[in-house]
Write a structure and sequence with these properties.
Length: 180
């Protein structure tokens, strides 16, 4: 019985090899990011930023997925005793440049997020982000991602200023569903 189940697993796995970034595929995963930045004209105004971002998306056409990304964010400015926390929701679009069934693929991702943040009273915030990097497929349906990104923050919490960040994201995605 074990041999039959193992053979069935291999058959299903081998059929999924060609279904990494094709129309009808689902994308689920997320990433963790850490950035350090300065904002405004004051060089002493430094910030550390930690973010956890699960996401889910759907491939509407081959190599192009769209979906939603949730975020939990912790920001701490130099000299502050308390961190600011935020929750955001961001629609995203992601494009993979290489054909399906590549061990390594390259992607670009763009999103616009909005939410609220604060150490006590919450204020509105928004951001736009672009990132790109390689997706290394550890198996036919799971990928480890390393992306370099740029994010620009605004909203009531920043007043008339914007905070701009350049950082590195490490992520993990699972590609599920249909095959071509």
């Amino acid at each position: 019985m074990k041999k039959v189940l193992f053979a069935a697993f291999l058959l299903v796995s081998s059929n999924a090899i060609f279904a990494q970034v094709n129309k009808g595929q689902w994308l689920a995963g997320g990433n963790i990011s850490f950035t350090s930045s300065k904002h405004g004209d004051n060089d002493d105004s430094k910030n550390t930023h930690f973010e956890i971002r699960p996401n889910a998306g759907y491939f509407f056409i081959d190599k192009l997925a769209g979906g939603l990304r949730l975020s939990y964010i912790s920001d701490k400015d130099k000299g502050d005793d308390e961190a600011t926390t935020a929750f955001t929701l961001a629609p995203f679009a992601r494009y993979y440049f290489l054909d399906a069934a590549q061990k390594v693929n390259v992607f670009a991702d763009a999103s616009y997020g909005f939410g609220s943040a604060g150490a006590g009273e919450k204020e509105s915030l928004n951001y736009w982000e672009i990132m790109a990097g390689p997706a290394v497929f550890l198996s036919p349906n799971t990928a480890l991602e390393l992306a370099v990104g740029y994010k620009s923050w605004g909203g009531d919490i920043y007043g008339d200023d914007r905070m701009n960040q350049f950082g590195v994201n490490i992520g993990f995605q699972v590609h599920l569903g249909g095959k071509k």
